[in-house]
Specification:
By secondary structure, the protein is mainly alpha-helical. It has helices at 6-19, 35-41, 45-61, 63-71, 86-92, 106-128, 134-159, 183-201, 210-214, 219-232, 236-247, 289-295, 312-318, 334-337, 361-374, 378-391, 402-416, 423-436, 440-448, 452-461, 474-479, and strands spanning 77-79, 273-277, 308-310, 356-360. It is globular, with a radius of gyration of 22 Å.
Amino acid sequence: MKKNNTYTIRIFLVFISLIGLTGCTDWLTVKPTSGLIKENFWTKTSDVEGALAATYDSYRDNSLNAFIWGELRADVFTFTENISTPSLENIAGSNISPSNSAISWKEFYQTINYANTLMHYSNDVLAKDHSFTQEMKDRIDGEALFLRALNYFYLVRLWKDVPLVTEPSISDTGNLFLPKSPEHEIINQIITDLNSAREKIGPVIYQNNLTYFKGKANRYSIMALLADVYLWNEQYQKCIDYCDSIINSGLYGLEPTATWFNLYNPGNSLAESIFEIQFDDGLDNQENPIYSNYLLISTDGTTGTDCIGTKDAVMKTLFSTEDIRTCGINGPIWKYRGITVNSSVIRGANQRDANFIDYRYADILLMKAEALNELDNITEANEFLRLTEERAGLSYVEVANKSDMRTAILNERAREFALEGKRWFDILRAAKRNHFANKQLIIDMILSGADVAQQAVLRTKVLDTMSYYLPIPEREILYNPNLVQNPYYDR
């Protein structure tokens, strides 16, 4: 198949030049090009639609980083081969330094700046192009707000306190050296953005094109993210309310056991998928980068040894042999590797495009179970936990108390979302609950993954809860005098 994505690439390049992003500038120092270019670009509907596509492209380009950060420090993920990335291996071993080249928030802020720029200039197009209606502008602004909120949710879970930027970097008169904002301000902005996005996008119109529907923000992906944010923020009834809005819509359900692998191949499950990062190996630059970086299916169809996978000890503890999510002897990595669940047939050279799934119906069920348990409704929490376990082919055993239910939900999420970029965030959310009353979860996890020689050193480090967050990249501290380092790394 001949690859073709000329229009999106052209718009993407114009959009990059418009907001002045270059590899040699700090993320806050982006400057506009000449007014002539701006006047020529922001004039018609297609400019705004192209800029929105470029914003989605930016988020997709950062998807591998998001996946890695959601797994790297947790207990399921492992490097199975030497991939010559000591920067990542040091982080996985809790040997983390502000000078580590892998630690960067630039890509998250790049997408945020695209979204901010798009929302700023869509006003100009509304005045110039009468075919660009207020309804169209609201929908596009709503999608930009969703993408901004999603990227800030990654930032706050990875760094805790970060600069809050809600205006585009288009003028030299703006404040290019913002300090960090506290986590609660970032969370409040995320919630504000998502509530606004939900109103702007309006009722969903179900699309026949699943790639379109599952890969773009709609009211249900917005509500899924809101539920996740409220769960993180310990606002459990609000989490339940948004989960119920999705459950009661009648649009979603679990993919049946017999077709479970459809979640991953071909993906965009009609029943279960809510929001996925879309890849298409038939288009230029749209292969999932996990293949070229870690799974080694090359353009000529040559395959190699997987560089990532799941830890054997964790697999034996978490998974039983009858669990469909083990993919037989292949392990959970097979969701990216395989054609069908139990076969030995791997994806070919033109099939390196498994989607990364941000939200699917199983996530909604398990978020609701977790929130119900925290509100001491253990009986109902059992009913939602039961659904995913039985779908996986397991016989459900009732859980009797709150503490055991917390463990059962974390274990089920580890099985259900193995290598889907969620495990570190799940453990951190559980650990930080009630002012880090459960931090022993992270302490035990980190120590269990270290060799005996490291454990004594790590034991003192992991007692500090700020060690669970990343350092501000050293280059950002050097460039921005108003940034203050995460205190754990400033010793």
